[in-house]
Amino acid sequence: KPIQILSNPLSTYNQQLWLTCVVELDQSKETSIQTSFLMTVKVDGVAQDGTTMFIHNKVHNRTRTLTCAGKCAEIIVAHLGYLNYTQYTVIVGFEHLKLPIKEMNFTWKTYDPAFSQLEIWFRFVFVVLTFIVTCLFA
Question: Which PANTHER family would you find in this protein's record (predicted)?
Answer without folding.
Answer: TRANSMEMBRANE PROTEIN 181
